[in-house]
Amino acid sequence: MDLLGKNIPEERIDEIINTVRKKKELSTVSESIILSELELILKKDGKILASVSEGKSYPLEFIVKTIRAILRERFGVFLSPKEFKERKETFEKLIKDISNIDIYKKLLGFHASTKERLPIYEKLYERIFAITGKPHHISDLGCGMNPFSLPFMDLGHIHYFATDIDGQMLGMIEKFFSTAHVHAVVGMLNLRNTEEYKLIQPSDVCFLFKLLDSIETKGHTLAEKLIKAIPSQWIVASFSTITMSGKKMNHPERGWIEQMLKRLGYKYEKLSFENEIFYVIKKSSSAAPAHCS
């Protein structure tokens, strides 16, 4: 965060972080993610940067509102205090009984996307890996609670790289992998910041489940940059086929990604399920292979 460190008083940075986190649903978002979003805002608008750095009155409300809107779009899960407590208790039960598939299902039910996938998880992975082959190394970007679907993958020894912006959720995922003796790297990445793409680890298959629609609101520049930057032979990108109100989309396929993949020379297959469509993308042979031990 060179821009912030060189230009912004520490007390102003703290004020922005603390104000963003005052909203309950954003209280567990990591400091690094908020700082990354702040830096993107300041890079776009020199006037705001000058106001914040020169000790003048600055648009705190605008900055906080902008960051909150972005994070809400990306967060994907809003739990009540009761649900937070229930999720924590369910996770603690899982750690004590790591082979109990019913506890995995209950835990996956605390996130809208993974709850929707519960009826299809086994078939989904069967169909994906029939195309890609069974991976030894998986990347799961913007993972949410998807790592808890690992038992449905029917894999042996696996390396797993998981990223998200929710520090509390990542803490659970890291403890789960440790308890299950899965070789894993878990960390925070802001996938709206292209400078962080170099931190993505190589893998056989990279999951981008319901991610690409959330990292940008206009255009698909970031989506293309991310797909090109991912050092994996296979990418599985998914999109919802229903609206926020639960209605079926008239055109659930994403024409933009199909056109983009054709232009880049990446082949793909589509897997369609009731509420979600998956693009299984084969990158060119120049994509970096996974380095697994």
Short summary:
With 293 residues, the chain is an alpha/beta fold. It contains 12 helices and 7 strands. It folds into 2 domains: 74 residues, no CATH class; 169 residues, Vaccinia Virus protein VP39 (Rossmann fold, 3-Layer(aba) Sandwich).
Describe the structure.
The chain is of the alpha/beta class and 293 residues long. The chain folds into two domains: 74 residues, no CATH class; 169 residues, Vaccinia Virus protein VP39 (Rossmann fold, 3-Layer(aba) Sandwich). The protein contains twelve helices and seven strands. The protein has a seven-stranded mixed beta sheet, sandwiched between helices. Helix 3 packs across helix 5. It is globular and about 60 Å long. It starts with a helix and ends in an 11-residue tail after the last strand. The C terminus is likely disordered.
Kindly provide the name of the CATH class of the largest domain: Alpha Beta
Mean pLDDT: 85
Kindly state the percentage of residues in helix.
Answer: 40-55%
User: What is the number of strand segments?
Assistant: 7
* Adjacency order of strands in the biggest sheet: 3-2-1-4-5-7-6
Overall number of structural domains: 2
Listing every helix as H and every strand as E from the N terminus to the C terminus, the arrangement reads HHHHHHHHHEEHEEHEHEE
Secondary structure category: alpha/beta
Helical segment tally?
Answer: 12
Rounded Rg? 20 Å
Largest sheet: 7 strands, mixed
How does the overall form come out from the CA principal axes? globular
CATH architecture of the largest domain: 3-Layer(aba) Sandwich
Poorly predicted runs are 286-293
Query: What is the CATH superfamily of the largest domain?
Result: Vaccinia Virus protein VP39
What's the CATH topology label of the largest domain?
A: Rossmann fold
Approximately what portion of the residues adopt beta-strand conformation? Answer: 15-25%
Distance between the termini: 33 Å
